[in-house]
Amino acid sequence: SLYVSEYFSQSAQKLSFYSWYGNAKLFHFHVPEDTVLLRWLLQASRGKGPECTSMEITVHFRHGAPPVINPLGTRFPANATVRPSYNISITLSSAVQNTTFVNVTTPAAGDWFIAAHLPEAAGRIEVKGFSTPCPYMFQADMFVLRLTDMPVLEPGVPMPHTVASPAKPLHVKVFVPKHASGMQFQLSSCVTSEQRACNVRVLLGSITLPQSFQRSLTCMGSINCSLALDSPPWEKWLQIMVESLGTANASVSVEMLASFTVCRPGSASSFLNFISLNQSQAGARPGAAGSSAPAAGEASHNVSGRRSSCLQSQPVVREDLDVVSVRYRLLNGPSVPVNSLSPTLLLLNLNTGMDSGGSLVVNLLLNKTSVSLANATVVACLSAASPVLSLNATRNCSTAFSQGYPLSVSTSSGEAMLIVLYPQTDDWFLSLQLLCPRGQGDCTSVEAKATVFAYLTPCFNDCGPYGQCSLLRRHGYLYAGCSCKAGWGGWSCTDDTKAQTVGVQNLATLLLTLSNLMFLPAIAVAVYRYYLVEASVYTYTMFFSTFYHACDQPGVAVMCIMDYDTLQYCDFLGSVVSIWVTILCMARVKKILKYVLFVLGTLLIAMSLQLDRRGVWNMMGPCLFALVIMVTAWVHHGAKRRHCYPSSWKRWVFYLLPGITLAFIAISVYAFMETNENYYYTHSIWHVLVACSVAFLLPPRDKHKKPWAWSQKLTCRYQICQNDREELYAVT
Fold it and tell me: Which domains does the chain have, with CATH numbers?
């Protein structure tokens, strides 16, 4: 046999601490057909700075779809099917880099996904630039060993083969036809080269993660071995590996035979399906499934064909709506007939390669008036690759190499829902059959009507009122995830274990908005001291900060007067400009120079915020530059007057020192104390402290300006007017 090795690599990604699925870094690979060995090369590294500590990286694997993970231990939505992902842990302790290998023999062909993340996020809000986070990098490479000339086992034809040695197992493959209800594998004529007892092991199927349903068969001696499989995967190559368990130098000769049992499906004629499709598209409303009354010939054909067919296939149309958004329509109407003789089969096509990043939702409703027997139950199984064709014999929805998902409706419970998170790329089948309890009449003549609604959505229920559905991308692959808020958690933001009550949400909104009213004293002081431009800036900041935080709330207490991004930009701009004009006002420079710096600084701040809105230097840069101007101006005033400036000790003790202290406390709270849990009151404290510090730091008014005296502005009394004479010159 000729083996070919192939190597696939993807660029490294910077890992993040986990708080939702978007923090997990996804790697997407495609394993080719006839692969006999898969090896993952996982490389993790960290920075060398003092901020880098020992860290544990969790890596998840899955075949066919992104892995469904739950590092936070939250609850999944009701009716959701969850199977634990296969994961390993990589520890970065003293070593800067860690290299790990993961081997998978006879892997399943198709898409494979790897997701890596750091432990749970601490929840601390870090200001960009104040601290340097440690970079943790992760890269996944894939090596495959592929057999170029794998022998093909023809169904019904015995084929002799030789296993050269235990170190060189034999690989063959057989193609499973459509509508195969069972497979019989037989191994016979087992002879060793040393004329000893023949010991071989046969592995049927490929390994898939997180669960592998590979079937094993051990043959001892010369006795024929056989293995029967129910519902093998339709229209796929089934890989078979035979390995010798004998001595190292002994070869083994075997003869293999694979045979299939193919059932005869019964379905409506293509002409009637075409008529139904035209009627549903022409007569129904847009987006509504059309239905037509079956003809008498069709009804008689279905009744006579039930006993001669092993399944009744119902035509389904796949309707693509958007990215990771698909709706399935039944041509014969949303209701399908279900009987006890043979299962009713619906094909849900999810094999485009771009459907595995959402959630597959199946709703099953029973028309109770259509069932004549009491306690009759309609059981259903949703499975991938092959349908379950014996629902009356088995209730666990298992096929040859996969485990399906069961549903059931009855006269007592007429509705059932199933949610498959990140369904694997494949053809999915929904099998329905009617089961009647024993001793309650003839069940063969009874037919039930079940309504099926199936669709693929990016996020189930759009993540609910306390979540946001985000479309994520890894190269050309798109998948969706829910980002929860207001303390809610879980895959679809349905876990209310740590959820904030409505009262807490209202309190948070009131604190974050009403705390901006503390700018009113600063505005009053600025107006009283004739700093009208500064008062206008504080009013602007108070207005937009109030409505930005009213729009930024995660819960139900939300009010947005304009676009969120606009409110955020205006809030950040007003905050930085307020600091800028306050420090320049304290510098007591000439008015013309002060107003030029006001305008020029505001324009530069607006530009820098557009480049990086959350950068720390967008606030620290203007502050430091304004402080340099203020210190220079104070030194100039002190040298000119030959004493300290400001000269009054009362100004230092009762105004400057309290204002500076409040400003430093505000910066400390903003930079080092804010977390996701305490944000609503720590940020409110930031509002109060900054507004109070502005009121303390504003300098007194100019001595030549009189205070506002509204009584002197009134003209309904006698007053002494000053006569300003203007000299006029005439040129003759």
Answer: 3-147 (2.60.120.380), 159-262 (2.60.120), 312-457 (2.60.120.680), 502-697 (1.20.1070)
